[in-house]
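Exercise 7. Given the encoded structure of a 120-residue chain, write a plausible sequence.
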């Protein structure tokens, strides 16, 4: 199928499909006229890529894990990849904790301002 239909079927924009191709994540076939031709297995891979990216994994980690997922053996993912994902997750947790501290400080500030403000 051509890129417009592939976009509709997969729920991923045509621009994202081109980007995934540019990044070497997918390799759609080509028709005689040069148009991209997406098969069902490529669209399945697109869905996996999208899911991994939406989970917050950076593109470099998605690129690393795709070959293992392609052969249907997620357990074959190397220990180093798992450590990378854990480090990424831990970094997210640290950023979240920092944001929660900032929010608490802003809440305290707003309480103080409201308490000090003259009542109408």
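Solution.
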């Amino acid at each position: 199928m051509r890129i417009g239909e592939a976009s509709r079927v997969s729920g991923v924009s045509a621009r994202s499909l081109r980007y995934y191709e540019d990044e070497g994540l997918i390799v759609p076939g080509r028709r005689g006229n040069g148009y991209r031709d997406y098969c069902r297995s490529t669209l399945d891979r697109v869905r996996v890529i999208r899911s991994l990216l939406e989970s917050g994994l950076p593109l470099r980690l998605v690129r690393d894990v795709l070959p293992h997922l392609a052969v249907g053996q997620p357990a074959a993912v190397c220990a180093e990849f798992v450590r990378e994902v854990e480090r990424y997750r831990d970094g997210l947790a640290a950023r979240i904790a920092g944001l929660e501290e900032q929010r608490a400080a802003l809440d305290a500030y707003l309480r103080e301002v409201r308490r000090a403000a003259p009542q109408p």
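Remark. The chain has five helices and two strands. Students should compare their own answers with the one above.
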